[in-house]
Write a structure and sequence with these properties.
Layout lengths: L1 E8 L6 E5 L4 E5 L6 H13 L18 E10 L2 E10 L4 E5 L2 E3 L11 E4 L5 H4 L2 H15 L1 H21 L4 H44 L6 E5 L7 H14 L1 H7 L11 E5 L2 E2 H4 L2 H23 L4 E5 L7 H10 L5 E5 L4 H4 L4 E7 L2 E6 L1
Parallel strand pairs: 3-13, 3-14, 8-12, 12-13
Antiparallel strand pairs: 1-2, 1-4, 4-5, 5-6, 6-7, 9-10, 10-11, 14-15
Helix pairs in contact: 3-4, 4-5, 5-6, 5-9
The structure holds adenosine-5'-triphosphate and magnesium ion (MG).
Adenosine-5'-triphosphate (ATP) binds next to helix 1.
């Protein structure tokens, strides 16, 4: 899959700008604060409806303007697809797929696929389990609307269960909870099963990618910490039992202490915890290996690669790792941003070079 063009209107520091991308390597360069990450962010928006960095949509509206627009057209093996998003000051947004307005964000998912890397994605390795769950959710939601809806329902039921746990009347809790737990376990089992399959699929690929990027010097191991395996029915049954057994503890804590909202992934490099012992370059390599593995999982799922968005990926990687990374994304359309790209890293690979200055394209060269 590749994105052919993108039009930004009053989006971040862009007034009106159209991009034409090549189905291969696209190098977006320019000085700091010119709009490279903003363009990368816009593409990711078209895929998921979310920003990888803003927690309020209206932030993307150009200062002083009322409304922002992103419109993009992508080509997949199944045909052409266009996605448009309009953002409004009251934090509302409208989403269009092939010109038709979609009412639920779930309907946007899966039309254009991308894998996004930017330095803040290092949270995937460095920070809390929530960031690792977010990674799994973003990938799985793009692959399956069923996952997206199960996750939405799960979060809703979970918050109702947590509210109930704070009730002073424990008799009421014990009376009502079995109904919630039945539904919670059902939705949870879909999430857990999909995550188990996803991690089983990508772990060996990420390990192989890491070995490649580090030239065989480092051995990555990925382990999930969910603790529930088997079919959806088996997972739902086991979780329901555990919820029942843990009820007194949950009442004491005032929240649900088990379930997919507590899942985590553990990464070790040469048997040491990457979060604690990894160098910055090693942590970046781990995050990249996972993203490269994620791209392969899209290929396995859809028969084509996603758009690889690599925003500011090179810093902290030594030249050999940079070169191996460039080799690893050769098969996919890549949107690559950097202030400066060393010629020795690109070598003579065909690339479209787009130079950005102050929210405008300054030059394009193939
Ligand atoms: N809503 C907005 N309205 C106007 N300008 C904005 C808005 N949001 C962000 N900007 C501006 O966009 C610029 C940053 O753009 P971006 O993050 O894309 O830079 P960059 O080219 O990726 O730079 P770097 O090389 O430092 O990563 C900043 O100058 C910021 O003030
Ligand atoms: Mg940037």
């Amino acid at each position: 899959m590749y994105i052919k063009n993108l039009t930004l209107t009053n989006f971040r520091n862009y007034s009106e700008q159209e991009f034409e991308f090549a189905n291969g390597l696209n190098l977006l360069s320019g000085a700091n604060a010119q709009g490279k990450t903003n363009a990368a962010e816009a593409i990711f928006f078209l895929c998921t409806g979310y920003s990888p960095r803003a927690n309020k949509d209206k932030i993307v509206i150009k200062n002083g303007e009322e409304c922002a627009k992103i419109l993009g057209k992508a080509q997949s093996i199944y045909g052409e697809v266009s996605v448009g998003i309009n953002f409004y000051k009251n934090d509302n947004k409208e989403i269009y797929v092939n010109g038709l307005k979609v009412l639920k964000i779930g309907e946007l998912m899966g039309n254009i696929h991308s894998v996004f890397f930017n330095p803040s994605e290092l949270k995937l390795v460095q920070e809390s389990p929530e960031d690792r769950r977010r990674f799994m959710n973003i990938s799985l939601c793009q692959k399956s609307k069923g996952y997206f809806y199960a996750l939405s329902r799960y979060n809703k039921i979970l918050s109702q269960r947590n509210n109930l746990l704070k009730e002073p009347d424990t008799y009421l809790i014990k009376e009502t909870l079995p109904i919630w737990d039945e539904q919670l376990s059902k939705e949870a089992s879909k999430i857990i099963k999909a995550r188990n399959e996803f991690l089983t699929e990508i772990s060996p690929i990420a390990e192989e990618k890491h070995a490649m990027l580090s030239n065989g010097k480092e051995k990555l191991t990925m382990k999930t910490e969910s603790g529930y395996y088997g079919t959806e029915e088996e997972i739902a049954y086991a979780l329901k039992q555990d919820l029942k057994m843990g009820l007194d503890r949950d009442i004491r804590l005032g929240f649900t202490s088990i379930g997919p909202h507590r899942d985590d992934i553990k990464f070790t490099l040469n048997d040491m915890d990457v979060r604690v012992y990894g160098s910055q370059g090693q942590q970046r390599t781990v995050a990249l290996s996972i993203k490269l593995a994620e791209a392969e999982s899209f290929y396995n799922h859809f028969g084509e690669y996603p758009i690889m968005i690599l925003d500011d990926v090179l810093s902290e990687l030594d030249k050999p790792r940079q070169r191996r990374l460039m080799g690893a994304v050769e098969k996919m359309q890549t949107i690559f941003t950097a202030t400066h790209i060393d010629r020795s890293v690109i070598k003579d690979k065909p690339a479209r070079r787009i130079v950005i200055e102050n929210g405008k394209i300054k030059s394009v060269k193939d």
